[in-house]
Specification:
mainly alpha, 2 domains, single chain, flat
């Protein structure tokens, strides 16, 4: 049931990556991270460290501006997707 809901709402990982809302999918151990959280930790750490490396040489203000641009970009991508869906209905 929840899989159908996420697909109907188009909030799957692939869709969020396509809309550039999400950067990556962190691989999970067999059975999911909830089944083996310790096995999931290395992949989570790698993702966090990748983000850290992106920001480590920026000033606080540069990070704020980067995040602001990112949020604005996400909003534009979502609006473009909504307009596309509306135009296909008309």
């Amino acid at each position: 049931m929840s899989r159908q809901a996420t697909e109907a709402l188009r909030i799957t990982a692939a869709e969020l990556i396509r809309l550039e809302v999400m950067d990556e999918v962190i691989p999970e151990p067999l059975g999911g991270a909830h089944a083996d959280p310790v096995a999931a930790f290395p992949a989570i750490k790698d993702a966090i460290m990748g983000t850290f490396r992106h920001y480590e040489h920026m000033t606080e203000r540069e990070i704020q501006l980067d995040r602001c641009v990112r949020v604005q970009h996400i909003a534009c991508m979502i609006m473009a997707e909504l307009l596309y869906r509306l135009s296909s209905v008309c």
